[in-house]
Amino acid sequence: NLTTTLDATIQEIVEKYILAFDRALSAGPNNKKNAKKKGAENIAVIIQNPNNGEILAMASSGTYDLNNPRDLSGSYTEYEIENMDDEETKEALFDMWKNYCVSQNFEPGSTFKPVVVASALESGAITEANRFYL
């Protein structure tokens, strides 16, 4: 049996606001006229219950119709699709099918520093008196 913690109401809200945010960016003054894609390159949202880690919603921009997963017309013009070679078509499809919440990886960088410091303090490796400079 498969059990999911996704909440359909929260999921719907997240998807609605991803689309609205992307449309607002597309219409914004900072959008380049000749940009390949209008709006955000990627938008990814994960809503998690902080008490138990359950994933309540997970969505990313660039949706597609599950009944017609090879239809690129939602992201490209007919002219662009007709002029794609096989490699470009394959790349466009793979990009459309990505779930950026789970398929992109980024270095944790500065967002992970508090975890390292907390662990070092807790283990006694450092004290509050220690100073570090970069």
Oligomer: single chain
- Helix proportion of residues, in percent? 25-40%
- What does the largest sheet look like? 2 strands, antiparallel
Residue share in β-strands: 5-15%
Question: How is this structure best summarized?
Answer:
This protein has 134 residues and is mainly alpha-helical.
How would you describe this structure to a colleague?
GO terms for molecular function: glycosyltransferase activity; penicillin binding. With 134 residues, the chain is mostly helical. The chain has one domain (8-107). The protein has helices at residues 8-27, 78-82, 86-97, 100-103, 113-123, and strands at residues 44-48, 55-60. The protein has a two-stranded antiparallel ribbon with strand order 1-2. The longest helix is centred in the first third of the chain and has 20 residues, at 8-27. The chain starts with 7 loop residues before the first helix and ends in an 11-residue tail after the last helix. The model has no long low-confidence stretch (mean pLDDT 87).
